[in-house]
């Protein structure tokens, strides 16, 4: 009985330790990040880009400037997918600001990102809460509405 108790304790402790381990992406992803941002120290996370969890993307969060954290996204092969940096509401194109004020309560905005994709195309991502649901709105560089996705 004592041995079973020790075994269970060991398994429990090892699972707790494993949860605190660092995620390191494949070497090619790390090298791609280091080549693009040589002086930055990333904190890695993993995202699945589809429901079947087949397409994996690695997100590297890092300090862009003091107080501003940016994010670089890479696929499994190490190809750069996107660069995301938070911005203030007043930095959005006027079209986006007008659209948001007309259709949503501004105090429920959770996050505003300027997104630069692998083709150097800029867009804006706005995450907000409406009727207890979380949405992500996408606008192009000109401020034209493109898409709304329900997150939760």
Automatic annotation (TrEMBL):
Q: Does the keyword Signal apply?
A: yes
Keyword terms: Signal
- Where in the sequence is the signal peptide annotated? 1-18
Q: What is this protein called?
A: Uncharacterized protein
Q: Which organism is it from?
A: Flavobacterium reichenbachii
